[in-house]
Amino acid sequence: MKKQMVILALCLMGAVGAPPLAAQVSEQSAPPQPTREEIQKNRQQIVLANVELNDTEKKAFLPVYEKYQTGVYSLEERLEKTIEEYAKFYNSDSLTDKKAGELLDTSLSIRKAKLELLNSYVAQLKKILPLKKVARIAQVENKMDAIVNYYLAAVIPLAK
Length: 160
What we know:
The protein is mainly α. The protein has one domain (about 1-155). The protein is about 80% helix and about 0% strand. It contains 6 helices and no strands. It has helices spanning about 1-10, 20-25, 35-50, 55-90, 95-130, 130-155. The protein is elongated, with a radius of gyration of 17 Å.
């Protein structure tokens, strides 16, 4: 699993707009940015590699997971726009208290929406899979999100 998480980290480093911000803010060279479809496919492959599902479970799981990923994609688009907006203000040294508050509220709203989406997804999975497998899927998703969040924390500078 560790190897798969490293691969995911490399694939997801470009997710949700981080490399453009890194380039704008610190002029670091970033790895090539994978497409969202590649990211979704990699996430799905990692989940499937870490959770043993029989054919019946897999058939029930995949449509639910794909719907969940569609919702995540929408939230990532919102987050990307928020990060890009923050980068614009950060790079021009023009972040006001009002704009900082708006960006913070937007960021928290996205986090809340993602948690609500995850709760809905887990509730659906509980109806079709054994609870140990649902817990494991949630753990794998959490680890993948932690990798993305770690990268974002590393490349997004603190407000000034």
